[in-house]
Amino acid sequence: MENLKTVGQPVRKKDAMSLLLGKPAYVDDVTPQNCLVVKVLRSPHAHALIEEINTDVAQKVPGVVAVYTYKDVPQKRFTMAGQTYPEPSPYDRLILDQRVRFVGDAVAIVAAEDEAAADKALKLIKVKYQVLEAVLDPHEALDGPILVHPEDNWRSLCPVGADNKRNLCASEVCSDGDVDGVLSHCDYVIDHVYHTPACNQAMMETFRTYTEMDPYGRLHVISSTQIVFHVRRILANALDIPKSKIHVEKPRIGGGFGAKQTVVAEIYPAFVTWKTGRAAKMIYTREESLIASSPRHDMEVHVRLGAGKDGTIRAIDVYTLSNTGAYGEHGPTTVGLSGHKSIPLYTNNLEAFRFAYDVVYTNRQSAGAYRGYGATQGIFAVESAVNELADILGMDPVAIREKNMVREGQVMPAYYNEKTNACALDRCMSRCAQLFGWEEKFHVRDMGNGKVRAAGVAMAMQGSGISGVDVGSATIKLSDEGFYNLSIGAADMGTGCDTILAQMAAECLDCPVDNIAVFGADSDASPYDSGSYASSTTYVTGKAVERACEQLKENLCAIAAQMMDCKSEDVEFTGKGVRRLDGKGEVSLMDIATKSMCGNAIPVQVTYTHTSPVSPPPFMVGMAEIEVDKETGGVGVLDYVAVVDCGTPINPNLARVQTEGGIVQGIGMALFEGITYDEKGNLLENSFMQYKIPTRLDMGHLRVEFESSYEPTGPFGAKSIGEIVINTPSPAIAHAIFRATGVWHRELPITPEKVLMAMKAKG
Is the pTM of this model over 0.85? Predict the structure, then answer.
C-alpha cells in the first residue's frame, strides 16, 4: 500500500469549509419558507382507541388549510424502516390510526399557512379516547392479554418468527454444538442478565422534510435522510401510489446515527402535499425528536458463559429480549447483532454456542436504528461477563482475551460461518495495552482525596454492510474539461463518505481529489444504493467506485486507441490522458472528452453495482481510566485509548474523528443516557434538560490509533468503521467502576446515584 497517492491520506472533507462558514446546506436552508407548515397532534395516552374526533373548530382557524384524521388516510399498512426489500420489519403502521399505541403517537395532521395557526389548530381538535390498558413491561408483553397490534391486516413479509397475536415482532434460535452439555462440564459459569435501556441519537439537526409537486405531477421530497431510495418506496406504500410518482433527494444532513434510517417525518408533509397539491414542510421540535422518533432498542441480554480454570472460554449462551415499542421498525434485524457480533469475538477455543431472542411489542415509543445496531447491547453484556470471569479467576482481563479471541483465518460459526480474512484484533489488544499503560493503570489507586482511580477493558467487532443484501452503486463520468463526475446513492451524513469515495476514485484514476466532483443522493439522478447504514458505504459502495473507475479507464483507452489509430492493448492510461506504449502518440483527457461527443459509440460514463456475500468485521479494543468520587458516586473518564482494525483507513483523519465521536456517544450511554417512563407510559426525558448527553468536559483524554489489516474483498483492503466505535466504552467503563468500587453494574446508565447506593449497600 506504500505506493498509493490518495488513499490513506488525511484529505480535507469536501464540504468542510462551507459547513464551517455556515453556508446554507441543510433542509431548512435550501427549501422555500413560503410553504405550508405541517404539525401533528400527538396522543396523551399509551394505549387508546379514538372514539370521536372533531376538527370543525380547528379547520376554521384563519390560515389553516387542512386537518386530517385516521378517516382520511389509506388503510394500507406499511413500515417506516429503511431496509432493503423484502423488508424484515412487519407492515404494522398506518399514516394515522384509530388505535394509538404510545404517548406521542400521531392522532391528526394539521397543515397551515404559518406555525402560529397550526399550533392554535392543534389545541382546538377535540378527541374522545377510550383509554385501554397498556403493556409497558417487555416481560409481560409476550403472550400477554394486552395486544399492541390486534388488527387483521398486520403482516410480516419475511419469515422472522413474527406473530402479532403474541406481541411478537421476531423470534429465533440458532446454535452450534451442545451448549448445555459443555456448560455442565465447565469449572466456572458466569450467569447474569445485563440491561441496556433505550437511548436517543440526539443528532444536531432534528427530523425535517420539505415536499412539493413538481411540474410533471410528481411528489418531490427533500429530506434529512440516510435512505433516499427507501424513502421513495415507503412513501409509495404509505400513500398507495406508484414509486414512479415520487422523487427523493437529500441535502447535507446534520447527523443521523441511524435515526434517519427510519422515515420519521417524511410521511406527514408528503401526505399533505399529495392531498392539497401545495408545498409543505415539517420540522420536528427537539421534544418531538425525543418522544416520537426512533431510539435504540431497549434490550435485556442474559449471558451464560462457561470456562475452565485456566480461563479457556468453552461455551456461550445468549438470550436477548428486545423491546421494539409500539411498532416493529428494525426490530427483527437489530436483535441479531446482539449475539452475532458478540459471541464470535471468542471463537478461538469455543466448543459450543447458542443465541436466542424474542422481540416484543409494547406501548412505548417505537425503537429503530442507532449506531451499533444491537451489537452495542450484546457486547456490553458479553464483554462484562468476560470481565466478571477474569475477576473470579484472578486473571488479567487482557490475558484472558488474548487466550480466547478470534484470530485471522478462523471460521466463526456464530457469525454465519464467515472466515476472518483480515483480523488484527490481537495486535489491537497488545498495542492498546502499551499505549494505555495497562499494567500500571489496571491497579486500583486510592488518590487520598476521597477519589479512586481504576481501569477497564473491552473489545468489539461489527460488520461491513449486510452480507448478500446491501447494494452499492457508483456512476463515474468523464466531463468536458477532463475532470470527473462521481454520482452516488449513499448519503453523506457528516461521515465524509463523499470525500472517501472521491479519494478512491482519484486513486483509481490517478488524479487529484479536487478533480472528482461528487453528487448524491437523489432517487432520480443517482444510481441505486441501499443507503448509508450498516457500516456499508466504504466497503460496499467503495468497491462499486473502484470497479466503475477501472471500467471507465478501459473505455477511455479504447477511445484513445481509435484516435491514435492503434489497438487498445497498445496504450496505457496515465492519469492525465492515454499514451501509446511505443511513445509515438498521446492524447489528453480533454481531447478524449471532446472526441466522445462526435462519432463515438464507447461510453465515457460507467455505472457499476456491487454487493458482497460476506461482511468482514472490523475490530476494536478500548481501555478506559476513570476516577470515582466515593462521597458522591460521580464517575469521570480521565483517559480512553482505542485501537481499531478497519482494514485500510482510506482517510485517517476522518476515521479518527469517527472513532472519537463514537467513543463519546458510548461514554454517554455508559454514564448518562437512558429513557425512562412513568406508570402511564409518559417518557420523562423530553428535553436536553432531562436527557443528558456528554460534552467535551465528560470525554476525558481520547487517544485513537489504527492497527491495519488488509481485507481482500474490500476496496484497497478497507473494511468499515462507522459503528464499531461505539461498542467498547460501556463495558470498559463498567469494568473500571467495578475495579474502583467492588460492585458490578449490569444496567446502564451507571449514574452517580447508582454508584453511591451500590457502594453504601456493599458497606
Answer: yes
